[in-house]
Design brief:
Blueprint (H helix, E strand, L loop, with lengths): L5 E7 L3 H12 L6 E7 L6 H11 L3 E5 L6 H11 L4 E4 L5 E2 L3 H11 L3 E11 L5 E5 L6 E2 L1 H11 L9 E4 H4 L13 H10 L3 E13 L10 H22 L4 H30 L11 H5 L5 H14 L2 H17 L3 H8 L1 H7 L4
Parallel strand pairs: 1-2, 1-4, 2-3, 6-10
Antiparallel strand pairs: 4-9, 5-10, 6-7, 6-9, 8-10
Helix pairs in contact: 1-2, 5-7, 5-9, 7-8, 8-9, 9-11, 9-13
Amino acid sequence: MSPSLVSICVPTYNRAAALRKGLADIRRQTYAPLEILISDNHSQDETEEVCREAARADSRIRYVRQPLNLGLYGNHNFCIEASRGEYLSFFHDHDERDQSLVGEFVRFLQHHPEVGVVSSDWELIDESGQCLGTRDHPVQPVTPGLAYIEQTIKSGRSSIGVPGAMVRRSALGPLRFDEQGPIGFGDFVVWFQIAERWHIGHLRQRLWRWRHTRRSQSARTITSFTRDYYDSLNAYCDGHLARWPEHARLVRRWRALTTRFLFWALAYELGLYVRHERGLVVVNDQPTLFEILDYQLSPGEARRVLEQMDRHRTGAMQSVIFRAIQAMTRLNLTWPLAWATQYHAVFRGVLGLR
């Protein structure tokens, strides 16, 4: 039996310097055969020159320059349609990958025909390549699909990272990213729909590195993504219920978990605000992305965090916590909030957010 063709899809836009390094990284993958599809989203820098030079040097590279900008998800969808492999991966232009990643993922999917998508642990790095933190997911190698959906909704974290995952094309089928959907959670909906019929795979190895830059699409405050997260997950729940009406009780639980997670996420952001206000320096072994971003809310934005917490609180415990935070804010006794951010991993465990 001949080896399975893998499509490495590289959606890119105006990052020629990073793309040059990224393509060199991709070409070092030890697995063959590969097709490397670059979809240039109508870049205005030297991207075309970089891509044509790379295509001349490597016959596996197919370069497409879009006549108009398709948008982030539109460009990803073009890659899905234009690629030909039995398996496909999105390799974003500025990230880094272990040269064995493709081969490891292919072996996993061949060994587990019930798995529709596989990812691995990863590192977060800065623009110079220095490690900022890690994302190690304490999940089983194979997780039943519905269990993956619930765990992701409950924790707000997916064990699947778009630029470090491989999808079985037969599992993806006609599914595509919602081109009108909000940036940041469009992948959740795709993975969830795959998980309705397939299991989810995971390798407990750090096989790729996500590079944080100030231009990253995911560089957002918690407050700014709350509405997008709420709307995206509730729209998914609507669709799931239409496809699986027998899951009505399960969907009610997912909706409640969505709201519950947002309340605690907003409380964490308020703690980060207090920490900045008090000038406290906290060093965590596992910093969150929001700590790495090191942003600071304005007082007006902090008030909006409280307003959103009020909207999303459910149950007696969250109501008590919210009233206590309101009182601490009025009395300027907010140090417990700052202190809690230092132990966010512990609190996530206590609150069942892992």
